[in-house]
Automatic annotation (TrEMBL):
HAMAP family: LysA. The lineage of its organism: Archaea, Methanobacteriati, Methanobacteriota, Stenosarchaea group, Halobacteria. This is Diaminopimelate decarboxylase. It comes from Halobellus salinus. Substrate binds at residues 290, 326, 330, 370, 398. Transmembrane segments: none annotated.
């Protein structure tokens, strides 16, 4: 895997000539994923958390190219649905490297996952509701069980992605020990789990520490009642910078805070990632998604319309809220760079300070008939012209995954690169694909 490399890859660091050639060859909109960068991100996580179990939260990007890279880099897979579990198996993860986190699971999902478990008894199922346990029991499951607590501490880049105190997720932490004690008689109780939310920055470290500390208390309580826990999973959520002025997350600081919170719990000095939780001999688990893939992906989109509106230059492109939902859904900021114009490399791709183009406030809008369909509003950008290609940064996480076909827009293609090799890893959806299901 090599060393971890720099903590963040800014949009300006992607080679414009290469990306323009890809847009030419594969057409737009196009997702590009850099497998080498995925491997570097995994390596950096491993360096910061040398003794922890690290699972990749598959939901951030489920493509086989990413899953295989992550598996080769030694991370396990955390899956949110039966479909993700099946993709993880397809990518070569063995059952002992797959955790399924059930969130209000449809019966169909439980059928499929329990079916997989029958052939792969090392697979772990995480439950966030007592009746999920009943439903698993009804299906004959008596294997490795992890209990998801709702820790009462949330964090993250947007209200919509804070899970830690949201009633939908997990079992209130104060009830977990009793349930775990009862379930330990019937199942192989291997872990406790909690997740604060997504996009945690350095400012959220206090919340993270509090969550870890509560989980440490829980683990000790479970253990004192005969537990036998293998791991304490404190979730994912490690943020990446989206704006040029944002610093990268200091992973070492997160790791230190995590150890310290565990150490405090046990009333001992910090002692590595092998969780020193009093008498609990459990391993710390983390499950980042975004951190692994966000800066390994860009979205390429071509300009089709340029018009002067009252307050801004509106640049119409062929990607929109169906291609990359995050700006419409969370007001998320993604750096945008005009690949066809010169770019000042220390400004993360915008505004253009060195090119010969005028820098103007630009609204980049997609082809969807909704006013939410904008990738950015009134952002200084070197004035794009029709036919030019823009690159959207940090598109590797929750990009293709949240794409959809609203307005009968086929989903984009995706290419994966590693070294000088480029492969089409998801073909472009066609109009025929979209109508195929209709009867
Ligand atoms: N573990 C659990 C239980 C989760 O629910 C999630 C994310 C993760 C791990 C990974 O979180 P990450 O490390 O990627 O932040 N669509 C949103 C993000 C939703 C995340 C949902 N759960 C976005 O685009 O910002």
């Amino acid at each position: 895997v090599g060393d971890g490399g720099p903590a963040v890859r800014r949009l300006a660091e992607w080679d414009a000539t290469d990306l323009l050639a890809l847009a030419e060859e594969y057409d737009t909109p196009l997702y590009v994923i850099d497998r080498d960068r995925v491997a570097e991100n995994c390596a950096r996580l491993r360096e910061a958390f040398p003794d922890a179990d690290i699972s990749y939260a598959v939901k951030a990007h489920t493509g086989q190219a990413v899953l295989r890279t992550v598996r080769e880099a030694g991370l396990d897979a955390e899956c949110a649905s039966a479909g993700e579990v099946e993709r993880a198996f397809e990518a070569g993860f063995t059952g002992n490297r797959i955790r399924y986190t059930a969130v209000n699971p449809p019966g169909r999902d439980l059928d499929r996952v329990v079916g997989r478990w029958q052939a792969n008894p090392e697979l772990t199922i995480t439950v966030g509701a007592a009746d999920t346990v009943d439903r698993l029991r009804d299906r004959g499951f008596d294997g490795r069980l992890c209990v998801r607590a709702n820790p009462g501490v949330g964090a993250g880049h947007h209200e919509k992605v804070r899970t830690g105190a949201n009633a939908k997720f997990g079992i209130p932490i104060e009830r977990v020990a009793d349930l775990a004690e009862a379930w330990a008689a019937e199942f192989d109780l291997v872990g406790v789990h909690a997740h604060a939310g997504s996009g945690i920055s350095g400012d959220d470290l206090t919340a993270h520490r509090e969550l870890v500390s509560r989980m440490g208390d829980l683990a000790r309580e479970v253990e004192s009642r005969g537990g036998g826990l293998e791991f304490v999973d404190v979730g994912g959520g490690f943020g990446v910078p989206y704006r040029s002025e944002e610093p990268p997350l200091d992973l070492d600081a997160v790791a230190a805070a995590t150890r310290e919170a565990l150490g405090d719990v046990a009333g001992r000095s910090p002692a590595g990632c092998q969780a020193e939780l009093g008498n609990v001999d459990a391993t710390l688990s983390i499950e980042p998604g975004r951190y692994v893939v966000a800066d390994a992906g860009v979205l390429l989109t071509r300009v089709n319309t340029v018009k002067e509106a009252r307050d801004a230059t509106v640049v119409g492109v062929d990607a929109g809220m169906t291609t990359l939902l995050r700006p419409a859904m969370y007001g998320a900021y993604h750096a945008i760079r005009n690949l066809s114009a010169g770019v000042d490399s220390d400004t993360d791709g915008e505004p253009n300070a060195t090119g010969d183009r005028e820098t103007v406030p630009v609204t980049v809008a997609g082809p969807i008939c909704e006013s939410a369909d904008v990738l950015c509003e009134e952002r200084p950008l070197s004035r794009p012209e029709r036919g030019e290609v823009l690159a959207v940064g940090n598109a590797g996480a929750y990009g293709y995954e949240m794409s959809n076909t609203y307005n009968t827009r086929p989903r984009p293609a995706e290419v994966a690169r590693s070294g000088t090799t480029v492969r089409l890893v998801r073909r472009r959806e066609t109009a025929a694909d979209l109508t195929e299901l209709e009867r």
